[in-house]
């Protein structure tokens, strides 16, 4: 088997696309599972953690929307697997920046959600 053909046929690029898609859905899946299990039996710490995760997910989506407004000159020349891997690492970076932003300087969204959920639990 000619390894060079893997790059040309898009087999590697296809795998990278699948990996990037799976990474995108990981955060949403975690949040959905936490909501399905319910927060009625959750401790205050677990509830606040879920609220912070939601805020991080919200920021992630906002950062992705902002990124789409900026022309992306660096990856225009790339094709196939290299472009897919660049997109994958951009996704990872955005997720980490959103999580760090939530931990270091929260928007207050997590605190508002926490207070509202605590009121609804009583």
Describe the structure.
By secondary structure, this protein is mainly alpha-helical. It contains five helices and no strands. It has helices at 3-9, 11-37, 44-68, 81-104, 109-121. α2 runs parallel beside α4 and α3 crosses α5. The protein starts with a helix and ends with a helix. The model is unreliable at 1-9 (pLDDT under 50).
Topology:
Blueprint: H1 3-9, H2 11-37, H3 44-68, H4 81-104, H5 109-121
Helix pairs in contact: 2-3, 2-4, 3-4, 3-5
Helix content: over 70%
Succession of helices and strands: HHHHH
Our measurement of the CA-to-CA distance between the termini, rounded to an integer number of angstroms, reads 64 Å
Radius of gyration: 19 Å
Beta-strand residue fraction: under 5%
Which regions have little confidence, pLDDT < 50, spanning 5+ residues? 1-9
Which structural class is indicated by helix and strand composition?
A: mainly alpha
Q: How is the biggest beta sheet arranged?
A: none
Total DSSP E strands: 0
Keywords:
122 residues, mainly alpha, 5 helices
Summarize it.
The protein is mostly helical and 122 residues long. Helices cover 79% and strands 0% of the residues. Helix 2 (11-37) runs antiparallel to helix 3.
């Amino acid at each position: 088997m000619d390894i060079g053909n893997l790059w040309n046929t898009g087999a590697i690029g296809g795998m990278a696309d699948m990996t990037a898609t799976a990474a995108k859905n990981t955060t949403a899946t975690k949040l959905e599972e936490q909501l399905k299990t319910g927060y009625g039996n959750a401790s205050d710490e677990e509830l606040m953690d879920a609220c912070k995760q939601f805020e991080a997910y919200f920021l992630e989506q906002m950062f992705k929307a902002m990124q789409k407004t900026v022309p992306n000159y660096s990856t225009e020349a790339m094709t196939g697997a290299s472009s897919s891997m660049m997109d994958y690492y951009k996704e990872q970076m955005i997720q980490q920046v959103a999580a760090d932003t939530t931990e270091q300087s929260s928007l207050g969204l997590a605190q508002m959600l926490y207070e509202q959920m605590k009121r609804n639990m009583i």
